[in-house]
Amino acid sequence: MISSLYHTFQDNSSHGEDSFLVKDLGQNSFLDVVLDGVTGHGGGEASQNVAQALSDSTITSMDDVIEILSEMNSDFYQVGGGKYLLTTASVVLYRENTIDILNAGDSPIYHITPDSHQRISSSLGGILRTSGTKLIGADSELYVSQRQLSLNPGDKVVVASDGVSDNISLEELLDIVRSSQSPDLAGQTIKHLIDEHLELGLAPQITGARYRHDDQTAIIRFFN
Q1: Alpha-carbon distances, residue 152 vs 12, 65, 79 (angstroms)
Q2: Domain 4-223 in CATH: superfamily?
Q3: What confidence score (pLDDT) does residue 96 get?
C-alpha cells in the first residue's frame, strides 16, 4: 500500500481569495483541492463556498466531485451571470494506485517523478494544456478537464494557485521538490524563494515580467 505525507501553505494577504481543502476519504484515499477566486468578481466567496461544499459532502469518486461542482456552478451563474462568483478549481483524488485529476481554470497541478514531470493546467505555459475548461461560475454549464495518471512510490504532487506558479520558475520548483526529504521542507523552501523573488522584484524568465503579489496556496504531497 502506498502511503503519503503532505504539507500546505497559504498566504492570502494580497486579496484573500484563495481557498484549499485536504480531505481524508478513508481507505487510504485523499482529496486535495486548490481554488483561486477571481479578484474583484466575488472570488473569495466563490472559492470558500466550493471548499465548504466539498468538505461537507460524502465523496467516493470524481463523479461526486463533478456533481458538487456542477451544482455550485449553476448557483454561481444564476446569481452572477458569469461575471461574479468566479473561481478556478484544481482537484486531485488519490486512491489505490491512481491519481484522478480535474481542472477548471489555470491553477496548475504538477505530477513529479525522479526523472519526469507533467504540469497540468489550462495556462499557455503548461506542458499539458487542459483546453475547453472554464472558471466555476462562468457559464451555465460546467466545463472541466479530467485526466487519470498512475501513482507509484516516490511520486510527488503539487497543487497550487497561480500566486505560486507565477512567482517561481518550473525548474526551481522541480529542483526543490525533488531534492527535499519531506513535503514540509519543500513547502518551506518554495515559500521562502517566492518571498525572496517578490522582495527583490526580479523578472522571471518564464513570463518576461516582474513577479507579482498575489495570494499563494499550495498542497505538496509525497508518496512512499
Answers
A1: 33, 24, 43
A2: PPM-type phosphatase domain (3.60.40.10)
A3: 87
